[in-house]
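Request from the bench team (R.T.):
"We need a structural guess for the complex before ordering more zinc ion. Sequence and SMILES attached. Just send the tokens back."

Command: build protein-zinc ion structure.
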Amino acid sequence: MNMQIPATAMTATPFAVPASRWDDAYAAALLPAELLLYRSNLLGSDLTVTNFGGGNTSAKLSEVDPLTGSAVEVLWVKGSGGDIGSMKLDGFATLYQDKLLGLEAHYAGPDDDDKMVGFLPHCTFNLNARAASIDTPLHSLLPFAHVDHVHPDAIIALAASSEGEAATREIWGGRIGWLPWKRPGYTLGVMLRDYVATNTGLEGVMLAGHGIICWADSAKACYEHTVELIADAANYLNARQAGRPAFGGQVVASNPDRAAIAADLMPRLRGLMTGTRRKLGHFSDDAEALEFVGSADVARLAALGTSCPDHFLRTKIAPLVLDPAKLQDNAWLEEQITDYRAMYAAYYDRCRRPNSPAMRDANPVVVLVPGVGRITFATDKTTARLAGEFYGNAINVMRGAEAIGDYIALDEQEAFDIEYWLLEEAKLQRMPAPKPLAGRVALVTGGAGGIGAATAARLLKDGACVMLADRDDAALEEVRVGFAKQYGPDVVRAATCDVTDEAQIAAAFSDCARQFGGLDILVANAGIASSAPIAETTTVLWDKNYDVLAKGYFLTAKHAWPLLKAMKNQGGTSVVFIGSKNAVAAAAGASAYASAKAAANHLARCLALEGAPDGIRVNVVNPDAVIKGSKIWDGDWRKERAGTHGIDAGQELEEHYRKRSMLGRDVLPEDIAEAAYWLASDASAKSTGNMINVDAGNAQAFTR
Ligand SMILES: [Zn+2]
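Reply to R.T.: structure attached below.
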């Protein structure tokens, strides 16, 4: 982290040069379809080879037809969706090759591209449920047994440069052909097939503005051929870049405070990106991003947009570039977002066709800040991260393309036709409805404990991203790893944080803002408990309770406040305090604890009043006797309370609390989590200043 390019850096970041990772011993035991999978995984899992998603691979294999029992040629080709790096065998579509070739009878010209997609399912072999991708004709129409189509940065850099065609000739002689830009589909497949038929002896074809397609007679030969072509392109570009800076040289030095600047900026940007759904943010200040954003050419190149369709679909027509000197000016920032949306609407109006789908969200996806880095926004964290990574690929492409000529972006109308392609729209319409907390960010203090972890799990389950804060490092990491496994590594982060230490609290919220873009939900839960008669309550014990339970809640709310306030125009935010029955009901022999809890509950009411104009709701859950999983109940408190009640500190204590409750039931962390979840969610959008008791019934704690 926090890598910094020295101001003296003169040489452009080089392209990675891949090498074959094929293992003959491993491959020897594989069946033909498994060899295709092996080759695909090798290509896709090596990010020096290709970007996420990574294109597609195919093999034409002999299979036994389940209907006739005789051998038949089947095209195995990476299906729609997924990533060749992590796919399994079920990620391939399988189709009768003779039926695929027969489809040409239905094709009259480029206007039939969409229609041809509808015929693909009719060619399915063996009832395979995996949908065939729109790139299938590229593979079926070429008369080669093994075909790879990939989009590595070094290759697209050639494909998107004014000098790309000349460079292709220079690097590979006549071995690799060149087709002008054509958007993916059946027509591109026909063009490619005809081009290869008339230009004999080709080993592959560059697809302008897009990538490369190449082939060989075996899985291993095809894999090694692909890797070699990428290495050739990378070596060629590296030789051209050597000894001179990228993008006209660095004009804005990388700011050593950029992490803090990003944390301060992201919640304000996120708050301004109003629309139907909230956004998650992702920040990167890797060397490539800093080299680009700080360069002389950033504004000119950013305005051109990206080239490869994969890059474009993820990153939108163009990024928003912000002047780092004006970031503190909120009115200026709002103007930038407003102008961007107007620019996007104008693009939509210029390019729309009579049957185009309605305009989608007009907010920028990529925001570039010279000296600071690259920030991306999307409706979920993974998409935001991937958008950033794809823009990173686009930066590499621009660097290489400019090293040999002029970078050429995708034509605006072509870009629009891809973005608003009816089949793409149909795919979006089929997406499942977002979960209730999708796009929300929650910070949970005491996140490694019983109630905290249960609440975090409940929020994660309904789609929130969660920053766990806890002072117990080891427990925190264990909980984080567990959640990352269950809900995915993108949606959970952890910050070591003692709520009595204001600097640590500030750092946790800053981290949350930088990791996710802001905050929508605060669950203040970190607590302790103590028990002592008044005469034996030392000032140390008194202060300890008030430090954690009163001052701790105050400090977490205070530092959450600006982040929550930034979301004022996005439908509001929620603060949930985990209180206690003892905040309402007096407790003998625990006056420090109970009165500190009462202070926190009253703080919640004060904050409810203060937060309402900014859409910040503040509510309290009052648990009682949640013993399972609680760190509080592991310590002296258990013995102390057992002593107070004159019972054994073991099983008897649970029994005592169960019997004492009106409903005669145990109260579990999950029960508290459910109430906290309700108060955090829009289901309680009209509630603030409330308390919910979750205590299996306790008349003493009835609110009045
Ligand atoms: Zn492609």
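Two things stood out. Residues 1-8 have pLDDT under 50 and may be disordered. Residues 55, 135, 149, 151, 184, 210-211 surround zinc ion (CB under 6 Å).
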